[in-house]
Specification:
Largest sheet: 5 strands, parallel
Structural class: alpha/beta
CATH class of the largest domain: Alpha Beta
Number of domains: 3
CATH architecture of the largest domain: 3-Layer(aba) Sandwich
Radius of gyration: 21 Å
CATH topology of the largest domain: Rossmann fold
Bound molecules: iron/sulfur cluster
Helix content: 40-55%
């Protein structure tokens, strides 16, 4: 299958557009009075300019390209000390803005090709992908353990390998294999059953979405997985009538929607299949009056935007031919695909739930610290950063931090423990499951 994954060299033209102004270090909340706060988890932790935001990372990219930097331990660590959260990308307003995460991942791909990357812990993760088709070294037969209670209750979930259904619930490896995250696929399936939805899962035949391989720079492993999935999705559409893939994981959703679209055959293989995140899927039902939210919850919650369903879905308007400004000029932003409003509207629609916003939200959200291979490569830092985000949530007076990603959910939970916070960390589907009556 042909792919359009850019090399660092192909991105060189954009790499030289950075003016080193440093705007990318902070999230601005324009006033009056104007306020700003750190936006880069790497800058917050490591402090020095070189590691901070896209400014520092782009300086490294220049050094790699002109040969003045070698792949020593310091450089490798700096390139991987980044959650690929896109916070810096949101702040920068110059012409390389649309390509900033690609530049950082391009350096990682270069490191992998040079035999210098990824980090040793990432190598174990990639090996697990090759051996088990998931990053958790989980045997295939355990992939459906989370679904056992449904079978026990006489409400088994359809197996798409044997039966047809229009909706495929793509569970994702974190929900399936991380014991602490299993309540998320369970709540998702419970909500779907309560709604009487005709859906199924791939069961033991589901494999990783490949997001982690892509984020740590192993493009070959990502392509192996993505090609398998794209062909499987097309087969499920043809043979089982699947027309919608729902993901409750922000990482899987981003990978299938955006990373897979780098395949030349994407449109052909995904023809007739829509990819949606649970927050979007349930919000559409809510708007149609098909989500009967009730119950007596009395909660003050705050909402954490996962980067992968937020600013990662930005679309950048570029003056390709130079009709407005000059060829390649960045001229505007289309946020219509970013899922900022849907989860918030659902939270506000739950009777008794009050939403209190943190200072850094939506495009200016502060990453939980777990993405981009950081939880695997720098676990201590990931948890510490999550603690900072939980503390920000506490300052709103909320007792619950809601998110829409099992990965954020897990990391924020670890962060809450680390700082001894009483903050409860929940996924949106868990709350909805609590207030949705049984059919
Ligand atoms: S990446 Fe953008 S905001 Fe950051 S230093 Fe470069 S030009 Fe300035
Ligand atoms: S992507 Fe996030 S962690 Fe990485 S440099 Fe930019 S703001 Fe920092």
């Amino acid at each position: 299958m042909e792919w359009h994954i850019p090399s660092l060299k192909e991105l060189e033209h954009f790499i030289w557009r950075c003016t080193a102004c440093g705007t990318c270090k902070v999230a601005y909340d324009y006033g009056p009075p104007s306020t700003c706060a750190d936006i880069c988890p790497a800058g917050t932790e490591f402090g020095f300019e070189g590691a901070m935001a896209s400014k520092g990372k782009i300086a490294f990219a220049r050094g790699i390209l002109d040969g003045s930097l070698e792949w020593d331990e310091d450089l490798i660590n700096s390139v991987y000390q980044c959650t690929i959260c896109g916070g810096c990308q949101s702040q920068c307003q110059l012409d390389h803005k649309p390509y900033i995460p690609e530049i950082i991942e391009g350096m990682r791909r270069e490191a992998v090709e040079a035999g210098a990357g990824p980090l040793p812990a990432h190598k174990n993760l990639v090996q697990s992908l090759k051996s088990y088709n998931n990053p958790y070294q989980g045997p295939r037969r355990l992939r459906t353990d989370w679904a056992r209670p449904f079978k026990k209750a006489g409400q088994p979930i359809k197996d798409l390998n044997k039966e047809s259904a229009p909706v495929m619930f793509f569970v994702g490896c974190t929900g399936a294999f991380n014991q602490a995250s299993r309540q998320i696929p369970q709540a998702t399936a419970s909500v779907f059953q309560k709604l009487g939805l005709d859906f199924g899962i791939l069961g033991e035949n589901e494999v990783c979405c490949g997001s982690t391989a892509m984020r740590v720079g192993d493009a070959a492993e990502f392509k192996r997985i993505a090609e398998h999935n794209l062909e499987l999705f097309a087969k499920m559409h043809k043979e089982r009538g699947v027309n919608t893939i729902v993901s409750s994981c922000a990482g899987c959703y981003r990978a299938i929607k955006k990373d897979y679209a780098l395949a030349a055959d994407y449109d052909k293989l995904m023809d007739g299949i829509k990819v949606v995140h649970t927050s979007e899927f349930l919000y559409d039902l809510h708007r149609q009056g098909k989500l009967p939210l009730s119950g007596g919850l009395q909660l003050t919650v705050t909402y954490h935007d996962p980067c992968h369903i937020g600013r990662h879905l930005n679309k950048f308007i570029v003056d390709t031919e130079g009709k407005e400004l000059w060829p390649g000029a960045y001229v505007g932003l289309d946020e219509s695909e970013c899922l900022y409003d849907q989860p918030r509207e659902l939270l506000k629609a739950i009777p008794g739930v009050k939403l209190e916003e943190m200072k850094r939200v939506r495009a200016n959200s502060y990453c939980c610290g777990g993405g981009g291979g950081v939880m695997t490569g720098f676990g201590e830092w990931a948890t510490k950063n999550a603690g900072l985000r939980v503390a920000e949530g506490e300052s709103t007076g909320a007792g619950v931090m809601v998110s829409t990603c099992p990965f954020c959910n897990y990391n924020l939970g670890q962060g809450a423990k680390r700082i001894g916070s009483a903050m409860q960390v929940l996924d949106l589907v868990e709350l909805i499951d609590q207030v949705l009556p049984k059919k």
